[in-house]
Amino acid sequence: MTIIVKTTASASARDYEWLKKSVADWLHRTDLDGVIADCVIFAEQRINSELRKRWVAEVPALADNGGSNWLIEQHAGLYLAATMCAALLYTGDMPKLQMWEAKYADAVGVLDFDPSISADLVVRPDRKAKE
């Protein structure tokens, strides 16, 4: 199944404000500004967890980094999907949550093939148990 994410701004305008507005638009809600900001924090924690599993990279928080970072500039769909998952948990919309979880998984999979990220890949030797 392919899920297409519509965006409301150009790639150069994808930042913290774009993300919060996009989430509100997708939710069809105008009353969740504070909640959406929290959802971005939860999304960043989830994304950082994924990145630590794969690489040594970590995403600087949008709210603390002038509203932008390397990940939202290169993979805005990942940010949107992760934030939507957190927001849909809040609203309790489980059917839509399943759709966005699939979108999130697809977006994380794309990271494995991004040469700008995979260049940071660190191979660690297996550790042998001490005898």
How would you sum up this structure in a few lines?
This protein is mainly α and 131 residues long. The chain has helices spanning 16-27, 33-54, 70-74, 76-91, 94-111, 115-118.
Pick out its properties.
mainly alpha, single chain, 6 helices, 131 residues, disordered N terminus
What kind of sheet is the major sheet? none
Q: Could you spell the SSE succession in H and E letters?
A: HHHHHH
Given as residue ranges, the uncertain stretches (5+ residues, pLDDT < 50) are 1-9, 119-124
Q: How many distinct folded domains? A: 1
Shape: globular
What proportion of the residues is helical, as a percent range? Answer: 55-70%
Q: Give the tally of β-strands.
A: 0
Distance, first to last CA: 49 Å
**Backbone structural class:** mainly alpha
Discrete helix count: 6
Rg over CA atoms, rounded to whole Å, is: 16 Å
Question: Average pLDDT across residues?
Answer: 83
Q: Strand portion, in percent?
A: under 5%
What does it look like?
With 131 residues, the protein is mostly helical. It has one domain (11-115). The chain has 6 helices and no strands. Helix 2 crosses helix 4. The chain is globular, with a radius of gyration of 16 Å.
List the helices and strands and how they pair.
Elements: H1 16-27, H2 33-54, H3 70-74, H4 76-91, H5 94-111, H6 115-118
Helix pairs in contact: 1-2, 1-4, 2-4, 4-5
